Amino acid sequence: MPEFRLNAISLRVCSKAGLRRLALSVIALLPLQSLPAAAESTLNVITSLSTNDPMYEGLVRFKSDVESKSDGDIRIRIFVGSQLGNDSDMLEQAMLGANVAVLADGGRLAVYQNELGILGAPYLVQSYEQIDQLTRTELFACWADELATRHGLHIFSFNWWQGARHLLTQTPVATPSDLQGTRMRTIGAPVWIQTIDAMGATPTPLAWAEVYSGLQQQVIDAAEAQYTGMWGARLYEVISHVTKTGHIQLISGLVGSERWFQSLTPQQQQMVTKAAMEAGRFASQKVRAAEADIEKALKARGVVISEPDTEPFRKATEVVYENLGYSALFQDIQALLKEAGDAHD
Question: How many CB atoms lie within 10 A of CB 308?
Fold first, then answer.
């Protein structure tokens, strides 16, 4: 298969449409003009998160920007707590052309576009800045284009950083061996299941809305989540320890129907893309600001927070890349990020 080089890294060629999608993201950074009148359109945005989560604040920002910039021609309706169905159900509806969108992580999207699964792989990146760099490359644009072309799913933006995932348990954890026999809730996607299994626990997929009751009723022994997620779900009431492994940097995308997106005028597409990117950046900044305060509040409520040596966890999870066929892609991404970092310096 032909290849091209990006920042001295050899990457797979994708369709011209994929590069056009990247160009649209760049255009979305430009100042917007008032949009011409168009037929009214509605997008229903569904999230499993609560209204006190920074991601919800980002969605409110997205709604405000889209509705004001379109002079009300595009309406955004937000539904929390998976009111219309879980994320997987909504993605299926979007594939069929329904006017819905959800915040979905790469692991969930890997079912449709395998390469996207690596975004949820353990210790892939170290910071939000690296994630932002990766999701603005031609490589990511190719993945997004294939997702749209083959499955009808459109990525509006993929810069919604929800924080680093940590272990939420009832007992102290210092090494992977401490997790043996622990039933740990995780997302029901291959990369997540493989990660938790490699870390030593027994992966137990469960809907996010059921995690609190699952812990309370001992259906599961533990969970793993980012600070804002566990705070919004009040999980500090049903766990006693947080171990800061930071095993996954949780990055999500606002993903909806490609058919709905293509029904918009080019000017509306530009506006919606820009609004999604700015809202993702806004929500991510909110997460950063909230994490320190949440950690203090957790300690005040008696939760024990520890910072283990993460090297044993890194070593244990290297097998995830081999099992899922991501080893070569992992090396390419690391080299790509290194070059981007060197260029920034």
Answer: 17
Distance CA 91, CA 102 (A): 7
In angstroms, the CA 166 to CA 147 distance is 29
Q: Where do runs of H (alpha helix) occur along the chain?
A: 16-27, 54-69, 87-95, 106-109, 128-134, 138-151, 190-198, 211-216, 227-232, 258-262, 266-300, 311-323, 327-344
Both tokens of 220, joined, read 């599961």
pLDDT greater at residue 226 or residue 26:
226
Which residue type, as a one-letter code, is found at position 88?
S
What is the DSSP code (8-state) at residue 34? P
Q: Identify the burial level of 57 via C-beta atoms within 10 angstroms of its C-beta, where 0-12 means exposed, 13-18 middle and 19 or more buried.
A: middle
Contact predicate 144/341, CB 8 Å: no
Average pLDDT over residues 23-31: 45
- End-to-end CA gap in the chain: 34
Coil/strand/helix, residue 113: coil
